[in-house]
Design goal:
The structure holds three protein chains of three kinds. Chain A contains twelve helices and eight strands. By secondary structure, chain A is an alpha+beta fold. A five-stranded mixed sheet of chain A has the order 2-4-5-7-6. In chain A, strands 1-3-8 form a three-stranded antiparallel sheet. The N terminus and C terminus of chain A are likely disordered. By secondary structure, chain B is mainly α. In chain B, strands 2-1-3 form a three-stranded antiparallel sheet. In chain B, helix 3 crosses helix 5. Chain B starts with a helix and ends with a helix. The N terminus of chain B is likely disordered. Chain C is an alpha/beta fold. Chain C has one domain: P-loop containing nucleotide triphosphate hydrolases (Rossmann fold), CATH 3.40.50. In chain C, about 25% of the residues lie in helices and about 20% in strands. In chain C, strands 2-3-4-1-5-6-7 form a seven-stranded mixed sheet, with helices on both faces. In chain C, helix 1 crosses helix 5. Classes of the chains: A alpha+beta, B mainly alpha, C alpha/beta. Chains in contact: A-B, A-C, B-C. The interface between A and C is large, with 101 and 107 residues.
Chain lengths: ~525, ~120, ~210
């Protein structure tokens, strides 16, 4: 069909009479011939010409008829071809539509349904539920829709399994962190108790302080793991805590705490629920500041009230971050607040800043890092007003643990109940008894009276003095000690001090001798103990 | 052993003792401090002092023994001694040491004690 | 951080009536030892001019915010290490009384405490005489002079001092007195007993030289 679609359309009315033209012409010629010839030949010529003309007309008519027929057939054929064409076009269009729909469905699957599925999975919905709800578009074939659902389901299930693993891993992390926290807390309490107990023994006390510090560092690490696992940091505080104490609490938790200098601190308190997160966030920032500045430099901390709350500034004189590095840190903070994978934690500054970011997000702290005038970094953490309260004055005046106690309130209220069961350390040993049923002690040493080591251990020896008069009423003592010794040189100052009040100067004391007697013995007393 | 104090201890404090002492565990004073060394302030507390230092300077307007300071601050004696050695080196307080430990009690001293006790 | 501007009413420190005179220049100390509940605190309190203070606090461990997934027991324990009182003997001389538990586990406290102490009072309760055994032994080992004061608890069986001396295996020269720790006069007499004993010993010692 080479000519499809281009049939020349003949001028039909002209064609309708065209076939008459030869006949008319032949008739005209015949008439002219008849007119021009002699009359006698007119009749035969006329007849002959008439016949010829008729024949011509007939032939023409026939030719015309056939021509028409041919044209009709041709038109018929053209129409058929055209119909066939239009049908094929429609089919193609339908195919294209289907293709587009599938394409759209695929796009929807990747760009909309899968992310939505993952999001909903992360929010805790079940894979089955989500796949059921997210039906395919009506444009697509059932087969395609089924395939789409299959893809969706298998992805959802895979993600669900992954999320589940991640969740349980996080839970496990948090769980372990909680256990470490519990042990650390217990240990810190024990250590504090030991510090109280051994407070008068500097060597032991110093060792305890070191242990205490190490324990605090472990505690912070456990807190960090808990925070990154999506939980709260360790403990919770019921009472509001003065910002000053919060800051020193944060300083307590870093390795290089002696380098931190607490300058001026606003007199406010932090509400109990935010105390621990704030301490932890500040500890991480302080750790960062001390870790990335030269070892001997100080890290200055100030806290001042600003319009939106309190701005805590931590400024190190360290190797400053280049602008690029600073931006990286801030980006990290942002990322951290968006969510961070536990498996994504390598070096410790990342861990620390990730924790800061997470805590900032939870609590509404605003954290920024700026270059410091000292060439280091200035970290600023803003605690919003709603997390603050006015400082309890007693804490501020004291700030030490328990420093707010009023002396009047510290009188003893020791109940006897608390002292029970604290009796003899040898309870389980059978006790030797006197005939009267009293327990019997046995002396371990056979030494004489204390401080009389040079005296023979017989109780009789210092007759009339000291030990022999032990049971005599106190008031009578000293009457036989007429020669009161002169105090040694070491007591010269003391003697001056008490001279106005020395015994014997008209008091109830019956001693007749003023103690200011000539020196006799004192130097010999050195080294007797 | 008291109301407010106890409550505080139940809560605990976020500050650890080594932060209060800067990690030092004992006195660095030239003269060793005893529990009954008497401490007297030489001046009023400066605003810039660490709170514990300020509290000591304030409470020692009249002589107070190390043991008493420790009790009022509710801090172990060693911590108080560290804080006191700071204050001593800054000449903010003075220490009046007790009778040297190695010495025997002197008769005069004992007589003074007895005399004082009899007046009770 | 202007702490000086804070309300002085909340400042820790002695009450105005508890302050020592500016002239106070020398302190001496006497240690009172005995088991829990024998009346150390009572005795310190009855003669002290200030309310007895303590250098160590009870440590109470209450449940904290942490969920204790571990099996660590949340115990509550009371530990009283040392309480003390004060007597101004004259304008310059101050006597501090330290009451300290006698159990072996508190002996670490003794180091700083006994250095420079004049002497010790061992307070005993006749119903629990044995709790003082270790204390007395320890004092003997340290060469620390002491007197034994028998605190008369109401309802406690009365014992002869000689009988008690025998039970405590004390040499004759160690003074023993009955006392009532609640009474200021009685407690004062115990301290006088100790200082008289020390005084006599010092003089005797001097005489021998």
């Amino acid at each position: 069909m080479v000519r499809v679609g281009s049939p020349p359309d003949p001028p039909r009315p002209a064609a309708g009479v065209a076939w008459l033209l030869p006949a008319v012409f032949s008739l005209a010629c015949s008439v002219a011939a008849v007119v021009m010839v002699d009359a006698d030949v007119r009749v035969p010529l006329g007849v002959g010409l008439a016949v010829a003309t008729v024949a011509v007309a007939a032939a023409c008519a026939e030719a015309s008829r056939r021509g028409r027929r041919i044209r009709g057939l041709r038109a018929q054929r053209d129409a058929a071809v055209a119909e066939q064409h239009s049908q094929r076009d429609a089919e193609a269009a339908a195919l294209r539509r289907r293709l587009a729909a599938q394409e759209a469905a695929l796009l929807q699957l990747t760009e909309e349904m899968l992310p939505k599925t993952i999001l909903r999975l992360q929010q805790g919905e079940s894979a089955r539920e989500i796949v059921h709800e997210l039906g395919g578009s009506p444009d697509i074939s059932p087969e395609f829709a089924a395939a789409q659902r299959t893809v969706l389901r298998s992805v959802a299930e895979a993600v669900e399994a992954e999320e589940g693993m991640r969740d349980s891993a996080q839970r496990a992390f948090v769980n372990i962190a909680r256990r470490v926290q519990a042990i650390v807390h217990q240990q810190a309490t024990d250590l504090r108790e030991m510090e109280e107990r051994h407070g008068a023994t500097p060597d032991v006390f110093g060792d305890l302080l070191r242990l205490d510090h190490g324990t605090a560092l472990i505690g912070r690490l456990a807190d960090s793991i808990a925070v990154l696992g999506g939980a709260r940091p360790g403990r919770q505080w019921q009472n509001n805590v003065a910002l000053y104490s919060v800051l020193r609490g944060a300083i307590s938790r870093i390795t290089d705490y002696p380098r931190v200098e607490l300058a001026s601190v606003a007199e406010v308190a932090v509400v109990g629920s935010s105390v621990e997160p704030l301490i932890h966030a500040l500890a991480e920032l302080l750790d960062n500041a001390t870790r990335y500045s030269p070892p001997k430099t100080l890290v200055r901390v100030t806290a001042s009230e600003v319009q939106s709350g309190v701005a805590i500034e931590i400024e190190d004189g360290g190797i400053g971050l280049a602008e690029e590095a600073r931006r990286r840190v801030e980006r990290l903070l942002e990322e951290a607040s968006a969510g961070l994978d536990l498996t994504d934690l390598g070096e410790s500054p990342r861990l620390g800043l990730a924790v800061v970011g997470r805590l900032a997000q939870q609590q509404g702290f605003r954290v920024s890092l700026r270059p410091s005038a000292y060439g280091g970094v200035r970290a600023i953490l803003i605690v919003p007003t709603e997390l603050l309260t006015s400082a309890p004055i007693s804490v501020v005046t004291g700030a030490a643990p328990g420093l707010d106690a009023l002396p009047a309130a510290r009188t003893r209220t020791l109940s006897s109940g608390t002292t029970r069961g604290a009796a003899s350390p040898k309870d389980d040993e059978p006790m030797e008894r006197t005939p009267n049923g009293l327990p019997q002690r046995r002396r371990r040493t056979s030494a004489g009276p204390p401080r009389l080591a040079s005296v023979p251990p017989s109780p009789r020896t210092p007759a009339g003095t000291g030990p022999a008069t032990a049971s005599a009423p106190a008031g009578q003592r000293g009457t036989d000690t007429a020669d009161a010794p002169e105090p040694g040189l070491w007591l010269a100052a003391f003697q001056d001090a008490v001279s106005g009040e020395s015994p014997g100067s008209g008091t109830a004391d019956s001693r007749g001798q003023h103690p200011d007697s000539p020196p006799q013995n004192t130097p010999a007393k050195e080294g007797e103990r | 052993m008291s109301g407010p104090r106890r409550l505080d201890w139940d809560e605990g404090s976020p500050e650890r003792l080594y932060v209060l002492t800067g990690g030092r565990s004992g006195s660095t004073a030239r003269e060793p401090l005893d529990l009954v060394t008497l401490i007297v302030s030489r001046s009023a507390p400066d605003p810039g002092l660490q709170p514990e230092h300020a509290a000591i300077v304030r409470m020692c307007e009249y002589p107070l023994s190390v043991a008493e300071i420790s009790a009022y601050l509710a801090l172990p004696a060693s911590v108080v001694m560290v804080l006191l050695s700071d204050l001593l080196s800054q000449r903010r307080v003075e220490a009046r040491p007790p009778i040297p430990a190695a010495s025997l009690p002197d008769a005069v001293l004992l007589e003074a004690v007895m005399h004082g006790l009899r007046k009770l | 951080m202007d702490y000086a501007s804070s309300d002085p009413g909340n400042v820790p420190g002695p009450r105005p009536q508890d302050t020592l005179p500016e002239t106070a220049s020398t302190a001496v100390k006497i240690v009172i030892v005995g088991g829990f509940g024998v009346g150390k605190t009572t005795m310190v309190g009855s003669v002290s001019e200030i309310r007895p203070l303590t250098t160590e606090e009870t440590m109470t461990r209450a449940g904290e915010g942490i969920d204790l997934v571990t099996g660590i027991e949340d115990k509550t324990e009371t530990t009283v290490a040392m309480d003390f009182g004060r007597i101004s003997l004259n304008e310059r001389l101050v006597l501090y009384l330290f009451g300290t538990p006698g159990q072996e586990r508190f002996w670490f406290l003794w180091n700083g405490l006994f250095d420079g102490a004049l002497g010790a009072v061992v307070l005993v309760d006749t119903r629990r005489l044995e709790v003082s055994f270790d204390v007395i032994g320890r004092l003997e080992e340290r060469g620390m002079p002491f007197v034994v004061a028998v605190n008369a608890f109401p309802g406690a069986p009365r014992h002869d001092l000689d009988e008690l001396r025998q039970a405590l295996d004390l040499p004759d020269w160690v003074p023993m007195v009955d006392c009532d720790a609640r009474s200021r006069a009685s407690s004062r007499d115990v301290l006088l007993e100790l200082t008289s004993y020390l005084h006599a010993m010092t003089l005797a010692d001097a005489e021998r030289r």
